[in-house]
Structures are given as C-alpha cells and as structure tokens.
Amino acid sequence: MSDQHNNNFEIHEDKPPKSKSTLGQSIFNFCNVLMGVGTLSLPLAFKHAGWIIGISLLFFCMGVTNYTARLLIKCLNYKEGIYTYPDIATIAFGKFAKIIIFILFSLELIAIAISLVILIGDSLQILFPDISLISLKIIAWMILIPLALIDIKYLSYFSLLGILSAIILVIVVIIDGITRNEQPGSLFNPMKTELWPTDWNSLPFSFGLIIAGYAGHSVFPSIYLDMQTPNTYLKAINISYSFSTVVYLLIAVCGYLMFGNMTKPEITQNIMSTTDHLKLLNQFIVWLIAINPFTKIVLELHPVNFFIEIQYLSSSCNLWTRIRNDCFLLIRFLSRTLVITMVVFIAIKYPQFDRAIELLGSFLFYTISTIIPCMFYLKLYSNNLRWWEWLVNLLIILVCTALAMLGTIWAFLFYH
C-alpha cells in the first residue's frame, strides 16, 4: 500500500484505452472541459456576490478542485483494473456505491451535454432566425454523431477552438467596454459595481455559478487514461487551471465592470445589445459560441460511453463474446448514437431544461468535483494519511457540503 501511496501517478500498462494524446493535446482537452458554458455566467456570479466574496469564492473553487483533481487520479491508480469514476466507488464503498455514483456522474454529464445542445440551438437561431429551433438541433445531432466516434487525441484540435473562443470573448468584452464608455480615457465605470452583495438573499446563487467553471472531474479520468505520458498529469492540470482561471477572472471582472447590476445570465446577452458598428464582431462571437460546444459535448459524454463499453466488453456470455468480437465497431457506433440521440431529444422536448440544470448545479458540481473525491481518498488511503490530511479533507467536505446545500435550496426556493 505504501508503494502505491508514494507513486500515485504511475499508470498501469494494461489500462484501456492505450495512451495517445501528447501533453499539449491533453492540456487543450482539460482547458476545453474546464471552460464550459458556466464561463458565460461568471459576471452574473460577481453581480450576486460582489467583488470580495466573488473573487474569494473563485480562488477557493480553483484551489479545492485542483486539489481534488489530484486526489481523483491517486484513487484511479490505487490498484489495477480501475478505469472510471464508478470503478473507484466500487473499490472504496462497494457495488451499491458504484450504482449511486454512476447515476450522479451520468446525470451531471448528460445534463451538461443537454445544456450545451440548448446553447447551440439558441446561438444558431440568432444567426438563422428563419430556421426553427428544432431543425437547428436536428442539424446539431447530425454533426455530433460522427464526432462521437473520434478519439480524444483528435478532439484536442477542436478543443483549441474552444480556448481561442474564450480568449476572443475576453477581447470583445474589453473592446465593448471601451466603445460603451462615455468618459474618454477610462475603460469602465466602476460606480456600477459593489464590494459586497447588495442583496444577501441572492448570494447563494453565485455558489453554483462559480463552481460550474471547475466541474470537470467526471471527464478527467478519461483524458488521463489517454495521455502518452501520464506522469505529466500534474503539470497538465496546473497549466490548465492557471490558464482557465486567468480567463475566468478577465471575463468575470471585465463583464461585471462593464454592466454592473445590469448583467444578464449570460454575458453574450449583454454583448449582443452593443452598437451597430460592433455587430459584425458580435456575430463572430455568436458563431464561436455556437460551434465550440460540439466538442465539449463529445468530451463530456465520453466517460458515460466509456463506462458502458467497459461493461459489455467485460461480459462473460459466450454468445455475446462472439458478437462483441465480430461487431465491436458497429456496437460502439450504435451505443454512442443512442446516447447522443437521447441528449438531443431531451434538449428538443424540454427547451427550458437549462433552468432545471441550474437547480441541480450546486448539488451535482460540488458533490462530484469536491466532496466525493475527498471521501474516496480518505477511504482508500486512510492508513497512510497524517492527521492534517484528514483535517484538510474533512474541512473541504464540510464547507463544500454547506455551499452545495445552500446553493441548491436557494435555487429551489427562488426558482421562477
């Protein structure tokens, strides 16, 4: 056990799938997962929390989720044969826990994928108002099917587009701020912002909005297992978190400075109301926001697909074994097509599903990304931990449980 504890980032040679992605490609994928749809709502989080609590909560979520991202991979390498988030749950707490964790992490990933499909449809309808929302989502479904079959290594090139779109969004926000300002020589009007929440009842809404930017832990094992050099995982995580946090701060600070109490749920809703001479630039941003979620959806659903495939690959049925070996690619295609179809169908059937996600956001994101990794770590490595490690992990569990409960309860109480 002590050897495993001291060498937590050694990947086992027989872990499927075979490592493929370079360090740079892995960083692109990590950044793409981290900079999700929640990025657009960070200015709104600062509106609810104010400067002091908003910035403090952002750095708290960054530090805690960076720490739990390390713990998660330590647990993944606890012993051979652990490939997924539910696998860790089985080793730590038994088969019943595996079912519970699979439901939770699948619910989180599928919910995020559905919200991204909704975002694609809403963005494309801004560009093509004459085409129905259902038709646009069906077009998105047709594009997602072949993308779902692409290896993570090649998705990294598309992930670069997501990183570039976030950088361009920051640039557009700054340009917009300069254009809107009525006082020459000044970028923004700080009188529109507050150091503390103006309405303390709205503060808990910021809890789920800020943690959403760092809720990628369900996908991290898939990206890790695909790395050519898994011993560089810590380096990839640190670079990805550092870059993402800089982008988050720029979007949150610039967006809140620009719009203050007029900040809308998504910063792009504010940007699209700019003057006519920025119309072309704003349309370019909408195109990026519409295209970027395609690879995010595939990355978010990869752990679900991978878990399903592991289950039917490990089947002991002789008849199924022969079918599996002869028709694996066909089965893989049908399985991933079914998952994508279910996601798009729900996005079409319930176009306001994103509101339901807001209700579950705090609970799911804090549970999957902070609370459960600490519980796994305490359970698996309990005999090797010092007293201060127990204290740190227990404090994280208590604080994040409080934030999750407050954020979820407030969302239900004030849901409209």
TrEMBL record:
* Entry superkingdom: Eukaryota
Provide the GO MF annotations for this entry: L-amino acid transmembrane transporter activity
Q: Where in the cell is it found?
A: Membrane
Q: How does it sit in the membrane?
A: Multi-pass membrane protein
**Region described as Disordered: spans on this chain:** 1-20
Location (main, coarse): membrane
Domain Amino acid transporter transmembrane, first and last residues per copy = 20-412
Keyword check for Transmembrane helix: yes
- Asked whether the keyword Magnesium is assigned, the reply is no
Family that this chain belongs to:
Belongs to the amino acid/polyamine transporter 2 family.
Q: What protein name applies here?
A: Solute carrier family 32
User: From which lineage does this chain's organism come?
Assistant: Eukaryota, Fungi, Fungi incertae sedis, Mucoromycota, Glomeromycotina
